[in-house]
From TrEMBL, chain A:
Boundaries of every ABC transmembrane type-1 domain copy: 88-301
Keyword Membrane found: yes
Principal location listed in the UniProt entry: membrane
Membrane topology: Multi-pass membrane protein
Keywords carried by this UniProt record: Cell membrane, Membrane, Transmembrane, Transmembrane helix, Transport
Protein name: ABC transporter permease
SUPFAM superfamilies the UniProt entry points to: MetI-like (SSF161098)
Localization (cell): Cell membrane
Transmembrane segments: 33-58, 87-111, 123-146, 173-197, 232-251, 284-302
Taxonomic source organism: Paracraurococcus ruber
Family: Belongs to the binding-protein-dependent transport system permease family.
Highest taxon of source: Bacteria
UniProtKB/TrEMBL annotation, chain B:
Protein name in the entry: Sugar ABC transporter ATP-binding protein
Pfam families, per database record: ABC_tran, OB_MalK
Domain ABC transporter: from-to ranges: 4-235
Molecular function terms from GO: ATP binding
InterPro entries: AAA+_ATPase (IPR003593), ABC_transporter-like_ATP-bd (IPR003439), ABC_transporter-like_CS (IPR017871), ABC_transpr_MalK-like (IPR015855), ABC_transpr_MalK/UgpC-like (IPR047641), Mo/tungstate-bd_C_term_dom (IPR008995), NA-bd_OB-fold (IPR012340), OB_MalK-like (IPR040582)
Domain of life: Bacteria
Keyword presence, Nucleotide-binding: yes
The family this protein is said to belong to: Belongs to the ABC transporter superfamily.
PROSITE patterns: ABC_TRANSPORTER_1, ABC_TRANSPORTER_2
Keywords: ATP-binding, Nucleotide-binding, Transport
Gene3D superfamilies documented for this protein: 2.40.50.100, Nucleic acid-binding proteins, P-loop containing nucleotide triphosphate hydrolases
Length: 313, 367
């Protein structure tokens, strides 16, 4: 009763001053200002990410002529297709092998660079970043020439040291390896630069403490460096996994999915099915296959990163 | 546990800058030695050379009799506590403390026994499962000490371990460190720039300046019988007063002539020591605690009265510090808080000449 009475009296008495004040207060709230400032970015993300993603989902549920809704029909057909199962396998093999190699090579290079005095480090850092900054379509053309069956410079070197020629792009396994080589060549500098930054952020005193605790160089790396870099390693690997899974240009330029569709990855196969073969809904379904796989990986990686940041930072 | 010998040790950096200029020091087994000095005096570099974290440019360092110049830190059997603790942030307190033992392939049960024992000594038993981030500064410092204790090394090295703590915690941890040393008795070398830490902790204090050792000795000796002006000024807080003076013979006595026509008599027993400096410029040194008010029934011999006018008065509670300017030289005196002191009002003070020092301004050494 008392509560009712208070509400009843307070309401009408305050009413005339309220609307202007409330609106002003709402506009001044930090969360409102933050939202307004983020709005341009939200609009860009909504327009360039959310809408195409939603549209792709919608497309994947249509028939080839995009005239009727067929639900998960496209996905069922894809999972029955031997070629597509091969694409899933090849995509996973390509992405995982390439990312592991990039991570290992990137770490090794970063470790080497870290031990070069700062003065000499700059030139090496610049040189080693080159593969990453050259547009991949162009650099892949260079590689294509090096792999070319008639003019392969790599084969020329192999022959010069007495080894036989390698059918770089003509034989399925060599073609897969070639695609991975080019991806690793182009992507390693990204890992290197991220790991170099991470290495620089590990305080020297931790290494000194480890050295006094009795750690050898290898033990210092295993028990201090790597655990301290885990978050950077996780995020770099996740980011690279996403980009490598979605890689299109290297496969397109180097093998165009061949020989016999054996080097296709999700993106190149989606392009082939959707654009070249004219079945846009099925092409959309192919590209959507990556999403659940990556979402699961991203969830666990980011959860780990979050947990470690809370414990360590 | 072991003795540490530092013989003619030099540290020279690129470009010929010498941080340590050929120092000699013998540290006995179980001894607690504090290296003290201002920033850049070479104390931390010396400690890091003992630890093996810095190469030795010349001379040799021996731990437990064996020269360790070319032995890596892990094989020197030393443990070090760093200024910013250097705890591994990804490990729990237990793992931080157990890490050194794990690397040395100790049995798991033995590791547990040692960690729990150290945790008991340092009262951090309830923190063993926490990560360093969840600890306060004082707790982190304890863990860093625990990491050193569990190893039971030949020598403990402390590199300004209390510098990152607030004043109250610093005093508390100082006591803890002393208590730990009384319990484990490991030879300890401790670096600090804080002379109070040096005085309270050390069996012997090593005062360093510009890469050389100025004086080595027990804290009280350094306080009462400093060898140089630097040591006299560095040890003691507030610092010793240094006043330009002239030594003169007069009416059968030896007198010190200070600015403002103040004349103080040299005690009889010191006259022969100072006689050769008669007629020369010297520096008169006296600690603020030896420049006090005239107390009733004061039986201290050699008290010389003097009237001075303070310009700044600082009541500290247990004492009052008064600051006086004598022709551009600031001097301080410690007086009883009950004495009413005011800026601008002359005070009747007494200098305890039995505690005076004279410094040769040419050499900066005590006469």
């Amino acid at each position: 009763m008392a509560l009712d009475a208070t509400t009843a009296t307070a309401g009408p008495a305050m009413a005339p001053a309220r609307p202007g004040l409330t609106l002003q207060r709402f506009a001044r709230r930090r969360s409102t200002i933050a939202f307004l400032m983020a709005l341009p970015l939200i609009t860009v993300i909504a327009g360039l990410v959310a809408w195409p993603a939603g549209y792709a989902i919608y497309l994947s549920t249509l028939n080839r002529r995009m005239t009727s809704f067929i639900g998960l029909g496209n996905f069922e057909i894809l999972l029955d297709s031997e070629t597509f199962l091969m694409v899933i396998w090849q995509s996973c093999f390509f992405a995982i092998t390439a990312v592991v190699l990039k991570a290992l090579l990137g770490f090794w290079l970063a470790h080497q660079l870290h031990h070069i005095p700062t003065k000499g480090q700059r030139i090496w850092r610049g040189l080693l970043l080159l593969p990453w900054v050259v547009p991949p379509a162009l650099s892949t053309l260079g590689w294509w020439w090096m792999f070319d069956p008639s003019y392969s410079s790599l084969n020329w070197i192999l022959n010069a040291i007495g080894a036989p020629s390698v059918p770089w792009l003509g034989e399925p396994w060599w073609a897969r390896i070639s695609v991975i080589i080019v991806n690793v060549w182009a992507g390693t500098p990204f890992f290197m630069i991220m790991y170099l930054a991470a290495l620089k952020s590990v305080p020297d005193q931790l290494y000194e403490a480890a050295a006094i605790d009795g750690a050898t160089g290898w033990q210092g790396l295993r028990y201090v460096t790597l655990p301290m870099m885990r978050n950077i390693i996780s995020i770099t690997v996740l980011f690279s996994l996403i980009v490598t899974f979605a890689n299109y240009d290297i496969v397109r330029v180097l093998t165009n999915g061949g020989p016999r569709d054996l080097t296709h990855v999700f993106a190149s196969y989606a392009f082939q099915v959707g654009v070249l073969a004219g079945n846009i809904p099925r092409g959309a379904a192919v590209s959507l296959f990556m999403f659940p796989l990556l979402a699961i990986v991203a969830f666990f990686v980011l959860r780990g990163v979050n947990q470690r940041s809370k414990e360590m930072a | 546990m072991a003795q540490v010998s530092i013989r003619k040790v030099v540290k020279e950096y690129e470009g010929g800058v010498q941080a340590v200029k050929g120092i000699d020091l013998e540290i006995a087994d179980h001894e607690f030695v504090v290296l003290v000095g201002p920033s850049g005096c070479g104390k931390s570099t010396t400690l890091r050379m003992i630890a093996g974290l810095e190469e030795i440019s010349g001379g040799e360092i021996a731990i437990g009799g064996g020269v360790v110049n070319d032995i890596p830190p892990r094989d020197r059997d030393i443990a070090m506590v760093f200024q910013n603790y250097a705890l591994y942030p990804h490990m729990t307190v237990y793992d931080n403390m157990a890490f050194g033992l794990m690397l040395r392939k100790f049995d798991k049960a033995e590791i547990r026994r040692r960690v729990e024992n150290a945790a008991r000594i340092l009262d951090i038993g309830m923190l063993l499962d926490r990560k360093p981030k969840a600890l306060s500064g004082g707790q982190r410092q304890r863990v860093a000490m625990g990491r050193a204790i569990v190893r039971d090394p030949k020598v403990f090295l402390f590199d300004e371990p209390l510098s990152n703590l607030d004043a109250k915690l610093r005093v508390q941890m100082r006591t803890e460190i002393k208590k730990v040393h009384q319990t484990v008795k490991t030879t300890t070398i401790y670096v600090t720039h804080d002379q109070i830490e040096a005085m309270t902790l050390a069996d012997r204090v090593v005062v360093m300046n510009h890469g050389v050792i100025e004086q080595v000795g027990p804290p009280t000796e350094l306080y009462h019988r400093p060898a140089t002006k630097f040591v006299a000024g560095f040890i003691g807080s507030p610092a010793m007063n240094f006043i330009p003076a002239r030594l003169e013979h007069g009416s059968g006595a030896l007198n010190i002539h200070l600015p403002d026509n103040i004349v103080l008599p040299v005690p009889e027993e010191r006259r022969s020591r100072y006689a050769s400096y008669a007629g020369k410029e010297v520096l008169f040194g006296i600690r603020p605690e030896h420049l006090t008010e005239i107390r009733p029934n004061d039986h201290r011999p050699n008290l010389a009265p003097l009237h001075l006018t303070p310009e700044v008065v600082e009541p500290m509670g247990m004492e009052t510090l008064v600051h006086i300017w004598l022709q551009g030289t600031e001097i301080s005196a410690r007086i009883d808080p009950a004495i009413p002191a005011e800026p601008g009002r002359p005070l009747a003070l007494a200098a305890d000449m039995g505690q005076m020092h004279l410094i040769d301004p040419q050499t900066d050494r005590m006469i």
